[in-house]
Specification:
The chain is of the alpha/beta class and 644 residues long. The chain has 3 domains: 364 residues, Aldolase class I (TIM Barrel, Alpha-Beta Barrel); 133 residues, Rossmann fold (3-Layer(aba) Sandwich); 118 residues, FAD/NAD(P)-binding domain, CATH 3.50.50. The protein is 30% helix and 18% strand. The protein contains 19 helices and 27 strands. It has an 8-stranded parallel barrel with strand order 3-4-5-8-9-10-11-12, surrounded by 7 helices. Strands 15-14-13-16-27 form a 5-stranded parallel sheet. A 5-stranded parallel sheet has the order 18-25-19-20-21. The longest helix has 20 residues. The structure holds flavin mononucleotide. Flavin mononucleotide (FMN) binds next to β4 and α9.
């Protein structure tokens, strides 16, 4: 048996789970505008139930009309009219004999009027969230009681709809968490003041729900065991909370972390370490006897097995890992580890546009299309598909074309796959990209794609089929026309990572404060170089997803990286590099290396050479327009689907 601890039965209240993997609640925005379950949502959850998890906690469903809402299409359980849809959802999960839990949620102050239908958000106290910058109104006592009752009614609806239990969302700084936390609860009445006062709201909700649903219906509680803000809940306080919640009769504790103001600790970007916050669950588990669930930045079966076998937690919840690969549990069980498409924590597809649009996934373009996947399609006439360039776009195109039954040849001029990604993966903070490259490598080996490494594509070669050609040749660095630009102190980011990296004790000037320039500057500093970064605009890493950007800026501040905004490179002379600020004032620096991270432009020379020669021609990924992995992979997937 692979992974005996993962695949041992577990119990939560009256429920028996066939293994120790729980699908973490992940707000998909797949509900309709009213908050009803949609076909998209049903298919998304059913696919994950089929993938072999032990239990699914369905995303935060809000208990109070628009005022409690925090995304545009948030799932609702605030009225009986939502029950029929929820019934279908529970049924879709039950079809695969997987217990289904519904998470109950009220956003409190962590929302904006955009989502609450113009209503002012409410909270224990009128303290604005620094992240959203919306000032809430403090709730009156009768309103608090009304919201407790709403949670209770929502739990009854969940039970009526056939769910096997509910989870109270007491984590991440939403309303329940706001009441528990001294950071957000400054009330002086019965619902605030001291520990008991702050606990009153969750405890009364638990008491009311228990009375309504009976002893047999599990109530789980999600808690941020460290809010990672000054004056917020810390582990010591969380331990007291956990004990109190157990006394109140909850059936499991789901130990998470963070609030919006410490967002990076809720949804870690790529630089965070695997399983870094398991210690929170471990400490809490020492004090309670109900099952403890750990969660957060856990990707690998080995990590999960270790957590469970050491007894640090009873269950492990996976969020993004199951967005990226719904079959993670099944593949793990069957020892097909190399087939797992590991989440790389880029946050771009799932979080990038979650508040206003559906979630997606950078590396799994099928997220949100699950309802179309099972449908019978017209048979595809096999074509000869030639893909040029084995970066993420080219590989995705080749694999998808192969899956559809086409004959595929993939040309790559380098002796390796992965394009520029392979080089960027060599930076420690980008290490998870290696998982994607390994996945690609394994998928290509297991496919019928004819991979021609170290081979330049030659359209003149009469043996090259020019039926369908996909150009995925990536991009090349943009080099400005400036005096001295041919100087041999100048390197591009790719050259820097490909053997020409200043190894330490050099003076390096990085020009360009996009994500590449910032990451490289940090990396070069970590190697012991003295680094200056200049950016001509006044915003760094403007091209990066919000959480990853916050993390990057924090790391730059921590490392005291020297950054000059509104500063540009004017000239390179023998003496040094001449810079100018936005007013034209000039400065001289004397670097031994200058890294030009000034963006890229598409490299699609082939397009012209193939015009009129190929039956169908696609230009995808960076060859179309330099953008992120998300676009490279999604471009490729969509292009190939359209081949008939
Ligand atoms: C797109 C997205 C939506 C989320 N929605 C919820 C939610 O509805 N309720 C919740 O408690 N946590 C939510 N989370 C947090 C996850 O449950 C999980 O705690 C977090 O993603 C860290 O775990 P992971 O690294 O396994 O993804 C969400 C996370 C993501 C990425």
């Amino acid at each position: 048996m692979h992974y005996p601890s993962i695949f041992s039965e577990g119990k939560i209240g009256t429920l028996t789970l066939k293994n120790r993997i729980i699908m973490a609640p992940v707000d998909t925005n797949f509900a309709d505008y009213e908050g009803k379950v949609s076909e998209k949502m049903l298919a998304y959850y059913e696919m994950r139930a089929r993938g072999g998890v032990g239990m699914i906690i369905v995303e935060n469903s809000q208990v109070e009309g628009p005022r409690g809402k925090h995304t545009v299409r948030q799932l609702c359980v605030s009225d009986d009219r939502f029950i029929p849809g929820l019934k279908r959802l529970a049924f879709a999960i039950h079809k695969h004999q997987i217990p289904a839990i519904l998470q109950l949620h009220h956003a409190g102050r962590q929302t904006t009027r955009e989502f609450t239908g113009g209503l002012q958000p409410v909270a224990p106290s009128a303290i604005p969230c620094k992240h959203l910058k919306e000032t809430p109104r403090a709730l009156m006592l009768d309103e608090i009681e009304e919201i407790e009752n709403r949670f209770t009614k929502a739990a009854i609806r969940a039970k009526t709809a056939g769910f096997d239990g509910i989870e109270l969302h007491g984590a991440h700084g939403y309303l329940i968490g706001q009441f528990m936390s001294p950071y957000t609860n400054h009330r002086e009445d019965a619902y605030g003041g001291d520990f008991e006062g702050r606990m009153r709201f969750p405890l009364r909700i638990i008491e009311k729900i228990r009375a309504a649903v009976g002893e047999e219906f599990p109530i789980l509680f999600r808690l941020s065991a460290d809010e990672f803000v000054e004056g917020g809940i810390k582990l010591e306080e969380a331990k007291r909370i956990a004990v109190r919640l157990e006394e109140a009769g909850i059936d499991a504790l789901h130990v998470s972390a963070g609030i919006y103001e410490s967002l990076m600790t809720i949804l870690e970007p790529m630089s965070y370490k695997e399983g870094w916050r398991v210690y929170l669950a471990k400490e809490i588990k020492k004090l309670v006897s109900v099952p403890v669930i750990t969660v957060g930045n856990i990707r690998y079966p080995d990590t999960v097995e270790e957590i469970l076998s050491k007894g640090d937690a009873d269950f492990v919840a996976l969020g993004r890992a199951l967005i990226a690969d719904p079959e993670w549990p099944l593949k793990t069980k069957e020892g097909r580890i190399k087939e797992i498409r590991y989440c790389i924590s880029c946050n771009e597809g799932c979080l990038g546009n979650r508040l206003t649009d559906y979630i997606g996934c950078s590396i799994n373009p099928e997220v949100g299309r699950e309802n179309r996947l099972g449908k019978k399609k017209k048979p595809v006439t096999p074509r000869h598909v030639t893909v040029v360039g084995a970066g993420p776009a080219g590989i995705t195109a080749a694999l998808q074309a192969d899956k559809m039954g086409h004959h595929v040849v993939l040309f790559e001029r380098n002796p390796w796959i992965g394009g520029q990604l392979r080089l960027f993966a060599s930076m420690p903070t980008k290490h998870r990209i290696n998982d994607l490259l390994n996945f690609f490598e394994y998928q290509l080996k297991s496919s019928n794609v004819e991979l021609r490494l170290g081979t330049e594509f030659d359209p003149q070669n009469p043996n090259t089929p020019l039926d369908v050609v996909v150009i995925a040749t990536g991009s090349i660095p943009s080099i400005p026309i400036l005096p001295g630009i041919k100087d041999d102190r100048i390197i591009t980011p790719v050259q820097c990572l490909d053997g020409q990296c200043p190894k330490g004790n050099e003076d390096v000037l990085v020009v360009g404060g996009g994500v590449t320039g910032c990451e490289l500057a940090l990396f070069l500093k970590s190697l012991g170089n003295r680094v200056i970064l200049i950016e001509k605009e006044d915003r760094l890493a403007a091209d990066l997803e919000e959480i990853s950007r916050m993390d990057l800026l924090k790391r730059m501040a921590k490392e005291k990286l020297q950054v000059f905004l509104r500063m540009s490179l004017r000239e390179i002379t023998e003496e040094g590099a001449i810079l100018a600020d936005s007013e034209g004032k000039k400065f001289m620096v004397k670097p031994t290396k200058i890294v030009l991270a000034m963006g890229n432009h598409a490299q699609a020379i082939l397009r012209r050479r193939l015009k009129g020669k190929a039956n169908r021609l696609f230009v995808i990924g960076d060859a179309k327009e330099p953008r992120t992995i998300y676009y490279a992979i999604h471009d490729a997937y969509k292009a190939v689907l359209s081949i008939t």
